[in-house]
Amino acid sequence: MCPIWRLLVLLSLLSVPSALHKQPWRGLVEAHMDRPALARIIAQGLMKHNVEGRIQNLRLMDSLNASGQMAPGMVGRLINGMNLQQQQESSANITNIQLDYSGIRMSFHKEWFSANISLEFDIDLRPSFNNKIIKTHASMNLVVEFWLEKDEFGRRHLVIGNCSVEPSSIHTTVLTEDISPKMKHFLRNLRENLAKVIPHLVESQVCPLISEILRQLDVKLLKSLMEQAAAHKFNQL
């Protein structure tokens, strides 16, 4: 483990209880104590790797046009008579990204745990047939699951499970007012396709980073962090 991560982990451990309790607990333990160490490590790692900048640089319009539902191009399908050059003039930019670093929620059950991360951002769309920028707001929760698994020799290793945006958490809202009746059909289709495309784009940036962050942690240390968080919550019951 590199020195910078050792330092981050050490600083995180200083702020959590050192005593581990061996008493059993039932069901899933929601670790909603003030900034669990593991949540801080994930947040610091995402900030270090500039995850917000990565999301902002996503080629959203290319993904919308490449969507199988709207081939050969979302804008071209919605607006009759548009040629390829006009499609290329359209733009869709992600702005005002807000990832809730301080609100990462950790859940634990024995040697299984998950992280729930909330993020939101605006999308500025400029159709080629209209110079007016259409601003849309998108919000969602991404959940990633991990667990410790023993091999045939009894040694634990980290297994990274599902990492995806919760479908029910995806919300898109058109912020631009004074929309003409002609544009309403366009915006309805836009929102539907954003809900299909955005989750995969966000997952492609956030999930590999979380995997990299946790794989840099020693398995014994990771288990200790899980036990400390669970024991702390158990003490509060």
Automatic annotation (TrEMBL):
An example of a GO molecular function for this protein is: lipid binding
Which superkingdom?
Eukaryota
Matches recorded under InterPro entries: Bactericidal_perm-incr_a/b_dom, Bpifa3, Lipid-bd_serum_glycop_N
**Locate the Lipid-binding serum glycoprotein N-terminal domain: which residues?**
46-217
Q: Would I find Signal among this entry's keywords?
A: yes
By its UniProt entry, which Gene3D superfamilies does this protein fall under?
Bactericidal permeability-increasing protein, domain 1 (3.15.10.10)
According to the UniProt entry, where is the signal peptide? 1-21
UniProt keyword Endoplasmic reticulum present:
no
Which Pfam families does its entry note? LBP_BPI_CETP (PF01273)
Which of UniProt's keywords are assigned here?
Signal
Indicate what this protein is called per its UniProt record.
Answer: BPI fold-containing family A member 3
Q: What organism is this sequence from?
A: Enhydra lutris kenyoni (northern sea otter)
